[in-house]
Amino acid sequence: MLTSKKQDTSQPLLTLTNVNLTIGERSLLESVDLELHRGEIVTVVGPNGAGKTTLLRVALGLQKPTSGSVSVASNVTIGYVPQKLHIDPTFPITVRRFLALAKAHNKHSFESLLNDVGAEHVIDSPLQNLSGGELQRVLMARALMRDPDILVLDEPVQGVDVHGQVELYDLISRVRTERGCAILMVSHDLHLVMASTDRVFCLNKHICCSGTPEVVVNDPAYTALFGPYAARHLAIYVHDKEHQHDHDHHECCGDEEHNHNG
Amino acid sequence: MDDFLLRALLGGLGVALVAGPFGSFVVWRRLAYFGDTLAHSALLGVALGFLLHINLTLGIFLICQMLAILLFVSQYQRQLASDTLLGIFSHGALSLGLVALAFMDNVRIDLVSYLFGDILAIGYSDLFWIYGAGGVALLGLIWIWKPLLSITIHEDLARVEGIPVDRINWLFLGLIALIVAIMMKVVGMLLVTALLIIPAATARRFANTPESMALIAMLIGAVSVGLGLLGSFQYDTPSGPTIVVAGCILFIGSILLPKRH
Fold first, then answer.
1. Which residue of chain B is at minimal alpha-carbon distance from A61?
2. Contacts 24+ apart (CB under 8 A), B43-49
3. At residue B60, does pLDDT exceed 50?
4. The most confident of A193-197, A218-222, B94-98, B113-117, by mean pLDDT
5. Residue range(s) defining the domain that contains residue B46
6. What mean pLDDT value characterizes chain A?
7. E-only strand ranges, A93-229
8. pLDDT at B41 over 80
């Protein structure tokens, strides 16, 4: 298509090498290494405040790291799917106009594009009226207009019900298969995301552990990070262990929990 | 029609036409307080104008630009919330302007006309400023229109898509500072923001695209100026506040109108 480099799957599309970020006195990221290859889905999980979104911002070039390097292979286009938009209600903008604002290299009509992501029914809706799931689909359509090599998603299923979450992860997997682009996403959801990802990075300022979902789930660092409740919560999907604590895993994955266990 | 009335009408209409599109962005991006802060620095600009013996509108423009730059740079600090910072700049600049003018023994200004505008005193040089600077500001806004819409939707998304966000924001704030300087004459420093946001807020009900909202805001601003001038002439009320009252009446009317669909 474009260059031979673009077709080379052994060369990472995006490389973070020993990235550190300190703002004021606070250390947000500590010696983070990450590689993203063509066609793979990489998910960064971690408790709130672990620096997940910060890591994405560094990867996107929106935030300069204090030290370390971020390199993107040549001719690589990045599509970004933010978690939300904060648009004032007085701003009259429909989905169609929103898509038209993108610098499109893509000849597909907006209708077929929205059809691809399952959001064709909202084409003339004001952007502010969309549900969380619809907005994610529209944002994905906008990102796909740029024919990205890398799609970066920030908590794509936040605020979406479980059924919608499964559908969104399916859509993300399909985008990877059909377009062959690499996907880098962030999630604090643990179980659903594991099913649809190739590699997982557990982040708590530094990378605690990484690998395929099976490897990561059995890593002691993973249990230490998310606490035994969350780990067991996840474990029912894997080992079918006895599960009696009616705990929301989100509550168990704070730093405090980590300290109690550590 | 008397000559001064014609000049007042022409000046008022010129300002309303510029205020429509800029006011729309001020509403969309929630910059009302920012506009206020720039306007409040105008007295400092007047003092500068007297000090340097330059055109007072030019003095106001220079001070507004300096303040816009200062505000832009200080948004990167994280110690103070932005509205606290704007409040400090806003009232600090207003007070500093009054104090600076008090130090100038040979300068006597009509404070009320700076605070609330003096549209009937618009001269030909003011018209030149309004249409010259206003035209430049509108052309500038049209030039950055599309990227500015993208930035309004999501700044980081715009950045990732390769839009030079900082440069566009700089330019936009600079243009706002320019139009604040020319709007001073018509509605005064305390009411500049009103003429920016009230017509835009009124236009929202009738608009379904950003462009139509900007155009309708221009129209509503022009009608407010016309009605305000008429009212001010009829009832012998101060012109700037009467224009704003006319705008408010139109706004309330737009809320009361039943929705079309």
1. B160
2. B43/B93, B43/B94, B43/B97, B43/B98, B43/B100, B43/B101, B43/B114, B43/B189, B44/B93, B44/B96, B44/B97, B44/B100, B45/B97, B45/B181, B46/B97, B46/B101, B46/B109, B46/B114, B47/B97, B47/B100, B47/B101, B47/B104, B47/B107
3. yes
4. B94-98
5. 3-256
6. 81
7. 150-154, 182-187, 199-204, 206-211
8. yes
Is B247 contained in some domain? Answer: yes
Put simply, whether B28 touches A (Cβ < 8 Å) is yes
Q: How confident is the model at residue A248 (pLDDT cuts 50, 70, 90)?
A: very low
Nearest to A151 by CA among A53, A82, A198: A82
Order of all β-strands in the sheet with A67-72:
A26-36, A14-23, A67-72
Find out whether A101 and B151 touch, Cβ atoms under 8 Å.
no
Helix (H, G, I), strand (E, B) or coil at A30: strand
Q: Does A127 touch chain B (CB under 8 A)?
A: yes
Alpha-carbon span A210 to B101, nearest angstrom:
66
Asked if residue B105 belongs to a domain, the reply is: yes
Helix (H, G, I), strand (E, B) or coil at A205: coil
Q: How far apart (Å, rounded) are the C-alpha atoms in residues B192 and B195?
A: 5
Residue B213 lies in a domain: yes
- How far is it, in rounded angstroms, from Cα A49 to Cα B107? 58
Residue A249 predicted with pLDDT over 80: no
Q: For residues A178 and B4, what is the distance between their CA atoms, to the nearest angstrom?
A: 69
pLDDT tens per residue, range B189-202: 889 999 999 999 99
Inter-chain touch B27–A57, beta carbons under 8 Å:
no
What's residue A107's pLDDT? Answer: 60
* pLDDT tens, residue by residue, A112-162: 889 888 898 999 999 999 998 999 999 999 999 888 999 999 988 887 888
Nearest CA in chain A to B153: A87
- The pLDDT score that the predictor gives to residue A244 is 42
Domains and CATH numbers, chain A: 4-77+148-212 (3.40.50.300), 87-147 (no CATH)
Interface of A with B in 2-41 (CB under 8 A): 24
Give just the sign of the alpha carbon dihedral B139, B144, B146, B149.
Answer: negative
**What's the alpha-carbon Rg for chain A, to the nearest Å?**
19
Answer whether B201 sits within 8 Å of A90, measured CB to CB: yes
For residue B261, being part of any structural domain is answered with no
